[in-house]
Amino acid sequence: MLTKRFITALLGIPLVVAAVWFSRPAPWFTVLAAFVGVLAGLEYFRITGVLKSIVLTVFGLAGILYFILTGIIYDRIEDPTLVFPLLVVGAILSLISLIFIRHREDSFSRWSLMIGGVLYIGWLLYLLVDLRSLFGREWVLLALFVTFGSDTAAYFIGKAFGKHKLAPQISPGKTWEGAIAGIIGGIIIALLFTFSSPWQLPLDYLEAILLGAVVSVFGQLGDLVESLLKRNFGVKDSGFLMPGHGGILDRLDSVLFAGAAVYGYCFLIKF
Questions:
Q1: Contact 37/122 with Cβ under 8 angstroms?
Q2: How far is CA 266 from each of CA 67, 130, 193, 269, rounded to the nearest angstrom?
Q3: Is cis: bond before 25, omega within 30 of 0?
Q4: Is the pTM of the predicted complex or chain greater than 0.70?
Q5: Where exactly are the structural domains of the chain?
Q6: Would you say residue 26 has pLDDT above 70?
Q7: If DSSP codes are grouped into helix, strand and coil, which group holds residue 267?
Q8: From residue 4, how far is each of 7, 57, 103, 242, 252 by CA, in Å?
Q9: Nearest to residue 152, comparing CAs of 174, 181, 176, 172?
């Protein structure tokens, strides 16, 4: 399992970093986010049972893509104010479609789960893409590498020294020792972005420490949220596309929340 995790990371991380770094003028990161969003959406719809309805699945995937591609759409249409009202129209049309589907059992519940998936995956990925567009690639790399560093530290320290369960009813394998190690790992990675380098950020040491800790905490909360989702539906892994990690959503869960934390910091505090 550890070997599979290492190989997957070795192949996947350079691809993601390249997409973030070289997203001008071509929107490679947006394209990658859209591709990953569709795969994660399919996993989410399979877990929640939305996939049983082709109509709701189509609406859901369209909503996820629309969120992620908002930046590109915004630049292409004459009236940008229509971007989010069109999402509302899509949500209403998907709700109306429930009247005409053949199997109506649990249809409203599935519609609610579909809307939740669009917000959970589409909106949070949109924040990560918008973070790249508004504030620069270095902030996205901070979110990604702090999450990776936090996850790695939490995994190894938790395995070796973890004794006190963090959330046994949600994720029995996670421990307080691992969570604290994850925060320390996140802080160490965040401090690297204060050094003189191509990815240096305008952060002093105290800002880097605080931001590294916050991003690590949000990333771990994102992991717990996805664990709760899987436990509610009796699923161990979201999929099998990433050997050693499970599915796309299993790897994306922490990044979604970490990206939102960095976006909030940049939008509300830094700029």
A1: yes
A2: 20, 11, 15, 6
A3: yes
A4: yes
A5: 2-270
A6: no
A7: helix
A8: 5, 31, 41, 9, 17
A9: 181
